[in-house]
Amino acid sequence: MRLLVCLKQVWEPESLFDLQEAELRPRSPLRRKISSYDELALEEALRLKDRLPEARVTALSVGAATAVDALRRALGMGADQAVHILAPEQPTPRPATLAAWIAAWAGEQGFDLILAGGMSEDAMQGAVGPMLAAKLGLPAVTSVIKLDAGSNALEVEREMEGGRRQRLSVQLPALVTIQSGPNQPRYPTLSNLLRAKKTTPLTIEAVDLAAPLEREKVLALAPPEKRRAGLVLEGDTTQKAERLLAILRERALL
Amino acid sequence: MSAATKRLVVVAEHAQGRLAPVTWELLACARQVAPALELEITAVVLGQEPQPLAQEIARRSGVKTWAVEVEGLAHFHGEAQRLALAGLLPRLEAQVVLGAHSTSGLDWAPALATDLGAAYIPGVESVSRGADGPAFWRSAHFGKAREKLTPETWPLVLTVQPGAFEAAPPGEVGQGKVEAIRLSAPPCRTKVLELVEGAGADAGLGRAQVVVAAGRGVGEKENLELLRRVAGLFSSAALAGSRPVCDLGWLGYGQQVGLTGATVAPRLYLACGISGALQHTVGMQGSGFVVAINSDPQAAIFNLADVCVVEDLTAFLSALLEMAGG
Ligand SMILES: Cc1cc2nc3c(=O)[nH]c(=O)nc-3n(C[C@H](O)[C@H](O)[C@H](O)COP(=O)(O)OP(=O)(O)OC[C@H]3O[C@@H](n4cnc5c(N)ncnc54)[C@H](O)[C@@H]3O)c2cc1C
Ligand SMILES: Nc1ncnc2c1ncn2[C@@H]1O[C@H](COP(=O)(O)O)[C@@H](O)[C@H]1O
User: Would you list the domain boundaries of chain B?
Assistant: First the structure.
């Protein structure tokens, strides 16, 4: 069984950002990581591999040169192969463009199962996975919290509103997007990291891949909307605690 | 040029024979989008027995509604819905298609956009009117910024963030027309085997006047004890959590607040170490008073808070407990 996992490298969510001229720039030090749902998708692929030893897991990331760090971590966690589609960081590609690039390479590889995150942590679109499936003509199931693979079918459980779930069978080849669940991503192992050091990811230039013209345009970037008063408490920890207690008492909440 | 009216088509969301509230929010969004583009607002209900729900939409919104009977579509099935819509929407002259940015909408909308060769804008939270038609705002960059988008081609598929648009007031506004369409079962490669009901929200959570909510920022399970003691300061309080805290097993899934968990509206919501992802805040934004404690001054939750405390939560809650004598 051949598995492909799509990984996006994102900034650490807790980084501080400056909004300048319609561009959001992180203040240094600039730290990056694998988007959390994608790490869970990789974990699910590796769990399948634990059960089906002949399975091979390929990790793929589209991004700037830094994306290689994400791929090295994936190899460290146990992926067998890494593919880097090198693309400039700005302007951020639209989801259909990302899907088209990935499809252009993956379409010829004969993967049995493609895994993506339910959504990227930063962009929160939930789009690249299902669009990739549609481009490749594969069935897709999103928001999957449990999966079990047989030889030519998959049984999955997907989550819906209010915690309801749905069990489905899926013909392979197929694509699933992973929602978080009790499984936590494993840590890289030393032996895998040593192997990763010696492995060079396959690099493909995005400009060499076919993609349609973008169908949407980002016109502007703005600070988030403040929907409530947002009184920021000042002072040291004790003073802030004192102030909060006073506010809660004033409002008869305490 | 065709003389046919172009349409905005709202795809109703429903489960267990009832319309999901987000359907009315989609209609509210539709009213902000359609006029500038001179589109007729319409709705579609897909299912095995769509008539009663289509009648309800037509009656309560006044819009023309198609009751689309899809053979075998007894429950939500993303692939069947996507294939049925891909065939149907061009016939309806759909220029704009609206679905919910929910677990269901996300299961069909992006793939449908690809099938239709449509522009796609997910998670729309507000609409602004420009000279060249509407533009759409959505959260991006971890909720630390908003981006404004326009389509460059048509048709356009949009998903609308649940909770972002004021739902139309209930009541009868005049009968819209209902038309029936029947479709045979689409050729699916996925099959729904079973529907499993969720455990349901913790009973105490809905009743509590104060909800103390733990996020991943709690860091360690032991720190939940601090939150428990803070809850003990109030006469009617319950502990709740964001998704990751429930995934870790520190709290039960019945205590999860958000899109795939419970919706709460206590008098006071104390968000501790929660970043403020939309899938969480949709479950608590109706709270009376919101206090957020987070070490990241730019955390999105602060935009939804009445009081913002930029602190390490263990240090802050310890100080709070000491001062309150709890
Ligand atoms: C389809 C779908 C459905 C979903 N449904 C839900 C749902 O129902 N409910 C839900 O909650 N989520 C849901 N999610 C997940 C959601 O998108 C977020 O990933 C989740 O809410 C994040 O939880 P969090 O804020 O606790 O964690 P994080 O986003 O990791 O945030 C942790 C926060 O803690 C802060 N912090 C860290 N250390 C400290 C400290 N010492 N002191 C103070 N603050 C600190 C950080 O600055 C950060 O802001 C869903 C996702 C999808 C895709
Ligand atoms: N740059 C990227 N490289 C590889 N995979 C990506 C990239 N961007 C998004 N994805 C995949 O698509 C999923 C959904 O992303 P999004 O549509 O941005 O929410 C992610 O969880 C990844 O699995």
Answer: 7-183, 203-324
Q: What is the pTM of this model?
A: 0.97
Q: Do A130 and B111 touch (CB under 8 A)?
A: yes
2.30.110.10, 3.30.565.10, 3.40.50.620, 3.40.50.1820: CATH of B7-183: 3.40.50.620
Q: What is the dihedral of CA A43, A49, A52, A58, to 10 degrees?
A: 130
Centre of ligand 2 to C-alpha A237, Å, is 39
Domain ranges of chain A: 2-208
- Classify domain B203-324 by CATH number: 3.40.50.1220
* Whole-angstrom distance, CA of residue B67 vs CA of residue B179: 6
Structure token pair of residue B147: 């981006």
Output the CATH code of domain A2-208: 3.40.50.620
Q: Which amino acid is at B154?
A: W
- Report chain B (326 residues): mean pLDDT per 10 consecutive residues: 78 95 96 95 97 96 97 96 98 98 98 98 95 92 96 97 86 86 97 89 91 98 98 97 97 96 97 98 97 97 98 98 89
CA–CA separation, B128 vs B135, rounded Å? 5
Name the residue of A36, A120, A218 whose CB sits within 8 Å of the most ligand 2 atoms, as the mutation to test its pocket.
A120
Which residues are CB-neighbours of B195 under 8 A, at least 6 positions away?
A164, A165, A166, A167, B75
This model of the complex carries an ipTM of 0.96
State whether B197 and A133 contact (CB < 8 Å).
no
DSSP code string of B256-312? BBSTTSB----SEEEEES----HHHHTTTTT-SEEEEEES-TT-GGGGG-SEEEES-
Looking at the complex, report in whole angstroms how far the Cα of residue A2 sits from the nearest Cα belonging to chain B.
Answer: 19
SS3 B10: strand
